[in-house]
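--- STAGE predict ---
source: upstream dedup step, 1 unique chain passed
mode: sequence only
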Amino acid sequence: MLVLVAPGQGAQTPGFLTPWLDLPGVRGALEAWSDAAKVDLIRYGTEGDADEIRDTAVAQPLLVAAGLASAYTLFDDPAELPRRVGAIAGHSVGELTAAALAGVLPDEDTVRLVRTRGLAMAEAAAVTRTGMSALLGGDPEVTIAHLEKLGLTPANVNGAGQIVAAGTLEELAALDADKPEGVRRVVALKVAGAFHTRHMAPAVDALAQAAAELSPADPAIPYVSNKDGRTVATGAEVVARLVGQVANPVRWDLCMETFRELGVTALLEVCPGGTLTGLAKRALPGVKTLALKTPDDLEAARELIAEHASA
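--- STAGE serialize ---
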């Protein structure tokens, strides 16, 4: 059984969209999504420097667009995707990529919604000086209890020995001085704020207003949610979870547990892939993984689909 996954913010690198523009239909799709989101995705994805594409309001629509474009190139007919994929999920903003690929929202509605999300989260992040740090190693229960003692939120519980803490810069400084027992390293992340915490509450309100205008369809693929790792059957519930997700932790560990329960045999990560396949290699031994980084990966991805996807 094949699981298709979409990465979250931080996966983007300067110029990563450039080789994809040579594929049929990609440039035209990106132009249409740029118009919908009112942001030049092609320029940012080919010419934007690291600082430009780190901007939350740019990074989020750029990642979703890249994920959609790369996923559609996997199949001669995009209608094959829901028939061949056994389950779908995304990490953080990647959940919007997954929602579009599952047929919950049209692509243009999705990129408009993610642009609203990015702008609202960037605005919320400007209110208080906050950030995020990745903790590597240690026992999750011990680590989470320690973070809560310091006033920090375990914003991403990623599994495979990785938890991301989020909070004020003062709280993160206290973490540097007082690591949880067993944690090997604490690495400050280059992000604009404490995503998936109470600091993002204003963004929830903005996203809820935008989402109220949508007419979601039920997912055509089992959709695994960051909230609790459960599959979600209705489009209305998917959208409600997308709205609340910006101020609540990402439980990617629980998503991977669900993949295992569903019988996953292969995991394919859309562009710009790498992060989620790395976690899967450690947490899902025996599962074949492949990350779409450039079009050079497409042949191997299609072979993986032929071997593991539904008929």
